[in-house]
Write a structure and sequence with these properties.
Blueprint: E1 19-22, E2 29-32, E3 39-41, H1 56-78, E4 82-94, E5 103-115, H2 118-132, H3 134-139, E6 144-152
Parallel strand pairs: 5-6
Antiparallel strand pairs: 1-2, 2-3, 4-5
Helix pairs in contact: 1-2
């Protein structure tokens, strides 16, 4: 059983809070965090959703991608690398018909364009994956996370 009490604010921790508001009589929700930027979440059409937002598990992969992307860009900027385009593709594998169905394998493909040194790109991604990305740390206990990258000049 889950404890329904709010998390106590403790000074030695950074606190984060989001609010989820139901938009319709089905599965469409609007989520708001401290940024004030709304994100829409919805269920699949086959369960009664309206396809009006990302699925919750998609949002987890989006969070992982965003977390690592910010790390990598910051590291590459400090190394004076010129980034002209930056994209990530994340593939997540979940057990079929399992309940719950957490991700078991995740592969991130970093697609970069610019005047970039491949060794510096690899080092930036390694630092993100092994040291800085909090989303990666959340997934590590249950999922094998791998990556690859491509640089186009």
């Amino acid at each position: 059983m889950l404890d329904s009490q709010p998390v106590a604010i403790v000074q030695e921790f950074n606190t984060m809070q989001v609010e989820l508001v139901r938009v319709d009589d089905a599965f469409h929700f609007e989520a708001l965090g401290k940024s004030g930027v709304a994100q829409h979440i919805d269920g699949a059409v086959d369960i009664g959703g309206h396809n009006a937002g990302a699925r919750p598990m998609e949002m987890l992969l989006m969070g992982l991608a965003g977390c690592s992307a910010i790390d990598v860009i910051l590291i590459l900027q400090k190394q004076k690398q010129v980034i002209e385009d930056f994209r990530l593709k994340v593939d997540g594998l979940r057990e079929k018909d399992a309940i719950p169905a957490p991700f078991k394998k995740i592969h991130i493909t970093y697609l970069l364009k610019g005047q970039l040194n491949a060794d510096k790109v690899k080092r930036a991604i390694d630092l993100s994956m092994d040291k800085y990305c909090s989303a990666t740390a959340q997934f590590r206990p249950s999922a094998d996370i791998t990556y690859s990258f491509e640089i186009n000049e």
